[in-house]
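Hi F.,

I've been meaning to write this up properly since the lab meeting, where we talked about keeping a consistent format for the predictions we share between groups. The idea is simple: the sequence comes first, exactly as it goes in, then the structure tokens exactly as they come out, then a line or two of notes. No screenshots and no reformatting. I'm using this chain as the first example so we have something concrete to point to.
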Amino acid sequence: MRSATRAVGEIVTPKELMVLDLTSDDAEIVGVDWIGQVYRWDRLLGRLLADPLQVHTRTVYAMLLTPDDHEIVIGGGEGVLRRWDRVNGTPLGEPLTGHRSRIRGLAGTRDGRELVSASQDGTARRWDRAASSWIGEPLRGHAGTVRAVALTSDEDVIVTAGQDSTVRRWNRAACTQIGEPFIGHHGPVQAIATAPDGRSIASGGRDGTVRRWDLASGRQVGPPLVADSPVWSLLLTSDGEIAAGSAHGLLHRWDRTGQRIGAPVAAHAWGVASFAATRDESELVTCGWDKRIRRWARVTGEPTRSARKETRIDLVSRLEITGTTPF
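Output, unedited:
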């Protein structure tokens, strides 16, 4: 059965975005730019829903929405977490302080009570969001910046990616490292994603590879998946697909066995900084450093075919672009 999104497929952004997220109903795209302004758009219409909200005066590398969509949580360039009301833009609670340098990654539990941050100070930290206080001891082990963080599906394990070329696992409750680091990348690991089935993770490195790991054993699964340039963003879907955005603006996709899904697609003119999937995983939403947000329909079982319409191009099997073409 064929599925395709036919609404507006591109949004032009005032500034280059660093991170984006979707509200739980997929109606709204929330993004933060490199000068610390938050924007909200109607996902289907591409319409800006409010004036930009200035949340920081320095580059913001990390942002997430709480599960109830009420709050935007920002990881600031000075190492502080701040919370904002998504709709009216008012600050909430006290800043969460403890890191000594930039926050590079954020994750949160499904109930919204706990945040986990990754920092340039070489640590990751757990936070009680409502109490504005940290939980337990900092997670120490990486040599240098912790660039990304994620939680496993059961939320028992924190996974971090470091400047030191390693991926590490941590017992969330005990704040202790589990086993040995995952070693394989040649250079900093810049993106991390955990599989919905809880058994595997994927990491994306500056070496231009995506590597798959068995979570329990720490062994690498299969050969590296090779991208065209450093991997900036990464996503795993429930059907096992691996999607990666590169520094050169290409979107790469592989199935659960590591086989490519079509050819790499020129998603953005420069750098796929971040992307998210709708809750039914039928659509990917990407942002690039070309001041564009683009929506991509994931289509199952479709052969490669040429363009049929000016504003709609079928590029590869299982992938369509809707809206203005990026070429």
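Notes:
The longest strand covers residues 133-140.
Residues 71 and 85 are 5 Å apart (CA to CA).

If this format works for you, I'll send the rest the same way.

G.
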